[in-house]
Design a protein that fits this description.
It contains seven helices and five strands, in the order βαβααβαβααβα. The chain is of the alpha/beta class and 169 residues long. It has a domain at 1-12 and 25-80 and 121-148 and 155-169. The two termini are 28 Å apart.
Length: 169
């Protein structure tokens, strides 16, 4: 039994982690695994985002574990296309269904959204500028793009519709 994969990509402050948590809340306990790039890279490994980083293999292993158990796996992160797209492609190949969504926001919009986050003191605007990469489409899949007009509620509803479940908002 293979699970369903949802990938939420976007620059820092775009809303992907909030959407991932909300999606998880819509599903029964132990049926939705959220695999956060920040959690794995920054918290578990204390690793910088570098090409070939250890977090890439660990993210893949965690996601595959969930998919192999038939779970809904929601991966959220910046997931710079140059560093992460091959891993994301491999993980998608293990899923019964894979859907990709990406926030396409200006740097000014990500900074404005970041100002309202609880972890806003964890990193600076200058650090965010280093991470910001603008729109970076993956070359193996069409992603549904979310612009600044898409609310978290709308994003969650669109994800749930794309995977065939109904969000309980």
């Amino acid at each position: 039994m293979k699970g369903t994969l949802v990938v939420l990509r976007g620059n820092s402050g775009s809303g992907k982690s909030t959407a991932a948590r909300r999606i998880q809340e819509q599903h029964d306990r132990a049926q939705c695994l959220v695999v956060g790039q920040d959690q794995v890279r920054r918290t578990m490994l204390r690793e910088r985002d570098v090409a070939g980083g250890a977090n890439i293999d660990l993210l893949e292993s965690i996601a595959e574990w969930g998919l192999d158990r038939g779970l809904l796996v929601v991966m959220d992160g910046i997931f710079n296309a140059g560093r992460y797209q091959r891993m994301l492609q491999r993980v998608a190949g293990r899923a019964s269904l894979a859907r990709f969504f990406a926030w396409d926001l200006s740097f000014d919009e990500t900074v404005a959204r970041h100002a309202h986050r609880a972890d806003r003191v964890d990193f600076t605007t200058d650090e965010m500028a280093d991470w910001y990469h603008g729109w970076q489409p993956l070359d193996f899949v069409d992603e549904e793009r979310f612009d600044a007009s898409v609310s978290i509620e709308d994003a969650v509803a669109r994800v749930e519709a794309a995977i065939g479940t109904r969000a309980r908002l």
